[in-house]
Amino acid sequence: MAKAKNIRQIITLESTAGTGYRYSTMKNKRNHPNRIEFKKFDPIIRKHVIFKETK
Fold first, then answer.
1. What's the whole-model pTM score?
2. DSSP conformational letter for 21
3. pLDDT digits over 23-37, tens only?
4. How far apart are CA 9 and CA 4, in angstroms?
């Protein structure tokens, strides 16, 4: 039998502060078809900044 395709996809979130720090997480492709943004902690500059989804 064929396996069902996974709805959840692994994505990478990169800091907009230019430090190059990245988080990896999962998102549901049906609920969030566009690129997402989160405000998370960047340990290099020790501040909360916006992280954007990259390919």
1. 0.82
2. -
3. 999 999 999 999 999
4. 14
